[in-house]
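--- STAGE predict ---
source: upstream dedup step, 1 unique chain passed
mode: sequence only
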Amino acid sequence: MRKVIVNEFLSLDGVAQAPGGAEEDSSGGFAHGGWHMQYMGDEVAQRWVLKNIVEADGFLLGRRTYDIFAAYWPNASEEQQVIAEPLNTKPKYVASRTRSGQLEWQNSTVLGGDLAQAVAALKEQDGGDLHTIGSTELVRSLLEYDLVDGFRLVIDPLTLGGGKSFFRADGLLRRLHLVDAQVVSTGAILATYESAG
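--- STAGE serialize ---
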């Protein structure tokens, strides 16, 4: 059975909104877009993020993340091809209430019907693990439906004082098992967790 692995950049206070740039998502008046980029200079962190992308068998993406990626990665520079190639060629499953039909980015499919049923069916297929990147609303839903099997988090040493998190204040206790962790030169923590049931 395939697993669903959540890949996220997080602030210490659990914010995942717009880590790469202000244009990603300024909803709710979020003014700190791009907060993560100052921590991407560490080579260990770069290799870790790349390893997660390369070992994914496919990607689950929310509509906003899909739109950002589809506009960028097919046109990535030569030096970015090490990341662009797996993102461009591997299957992408897009959760969207507003998109339907054929998607322009290669190997992209809109998840039709009920999200929980569609993702559960993907998990039952043969193949390797499916990774989410960004997609905070999608991750919230996947957690709600108990479809997340693990997390790979880059936790940056800063707080943002507000913004989108994929953890809901729902009162549910979710136990995780720390599989691996390391601190890199920027002070970021690379943490791998599995669901502990």
